[in-house]
């Protein structure tokens, strides 16, 4: 049975996030490796896809600021998402 993102129900204070990956092309058109792009990117952001019932400060659909580490990657429908605990997140965008 194939599972989709709509089938995911987070538990506790966990948050499922679709991370916006850094561009692998510079402003001048040079293509760099994903690792180099991640290292040079100043802001890592993502979109909240699902939240657990104990989450108080984040809602589905919000664009949030992410720490560079501290998540658990999961694959759903051949896409990589990241699970964070609410306490490891520190900001969201207006």
Structural account:
The protein contains one helix and six strands; from the N terminus they run βαβββββ. The protein has one helix at 34-40, and strands spanning 14-19, 45-51, 63-65, 72-76, 79-85, 91-92. Strands 4-5-1-2-3-6 form a six-stranded antiparallel sheet, with no helix packed on it. It has one domain (5-23, 31-92): Roll (10 Kd Chaperonin, Protein Cpn10, Chain O). The longest helix is centred in the middle third of the chain and has 7 residues, at 34-40. The model has no long low-confidence stretch (mean pLDDT 85). The chain is globular, with a radius of gyration of 14 Å. By secondary structure, the protein is mainly beta.
Give the arrangement of secondary structure elements:
Layout lengths: L13 E6 L14 H7 L4 E7 L11 E3 L6 E5 L2 E7 L5 E2 L2
Antiparallel strand pairs: 1-2, 1-5, 2-3, 3-6, 4-5
Proportion of strand residues: 25-35%
Which structural class do the helices and strands define? mainly beta
CATH superfamily: GroES chaperonin
CATH architecture descriptor name: Roll
Quick check: average pLDDT? 85
Oligomeric state of the chains present here: single chain
- If strands are numbered along the chain, what order do they take across the biggest sheet? 4-5-1-2-3-6
Largest sheet: 6 strands, antiparallel
Rg from C-alpha positions?
A: 14 Å
What is the helix tally? 1
Overall, the morphology is: globular
- The tally of domains stands at 1
The top-level CATH class is Mainly Beta
- Poorly predicted parts: none
Extended strand count: 6
The H/E string reads: EHEEEEE
Cα distance, first to last residue? Answer: 38 Å
Helix proportion: under 10%
């Amino acid at each position: 049975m194939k599972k989709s993102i709509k089938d995911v129900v987070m538990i506790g204070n966990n948050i499922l996030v679709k991370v916006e990956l850094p561009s692998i092309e510079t402003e001048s058109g040079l293509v760099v490796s994903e690792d180099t792009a991640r290292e040079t990117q100043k802001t890592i952001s993502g979109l909240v896809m699902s939240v657990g019932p104990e989450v108080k400060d984040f809602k589905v659909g919000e664009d949030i600021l992410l720490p560079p580490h501290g998540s658990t990657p999961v694959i759903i429908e051949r896409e990589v998402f990241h699970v964070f605990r609410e306490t490891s997140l520190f900001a969201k965008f207006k």
